[in-house]
C-alpha cells in the first residue's frame, strides 16, 4: 500500500486508531520480554556463582 504523504501514512486510511495502538502494544510486549529475559539471566548467573562458590569450599 502506497501513501501520498507522511500525514496519509500516519492516518493509515482512517484506521490509525486501531493500527498504532496495536504496534505500540506489540513493541511494549517485545521490550518486556527482553527485559524479563535479562532479569532472569542475571538471577540465574548469580545463583550459579553462589552454588559454585559453595561447592568449591573445603568441607
Automatic annotation (TrEMBL):
Q: Which UniProt keywords apply?
A: Cell inner membrane, Cell membrane, Cytochrome c-type biogenesis, Membrane, Transmembrane, Transmembrane helix, Transport
* Coiled-coil segments: none
Q: Which InterPro entries match?
A: Haem_export_protD_CcmD, Heme_exporter_D
Protein's name according to its UniProt entry: Heme exporter protein D
Q: This protein's superkingdom?
A: Bacteria
Membrane-topology descriptor: Single-pass membrane protein
Q: Name one Pfam family in it.
A: CcmD
Where in or outside the cell is it found? Answer: Cell inner membrane
Question: Where are the bilayer-spanning segments?
Answer: 20-39
Say what the protein does. Required for the export of heme to the periplasm for the biogenesis of c-type cytochromes.
Would you identify the family this protein belongs to, as annotated?
Answer: Belongs to the CcmD/CycX/HelD family.
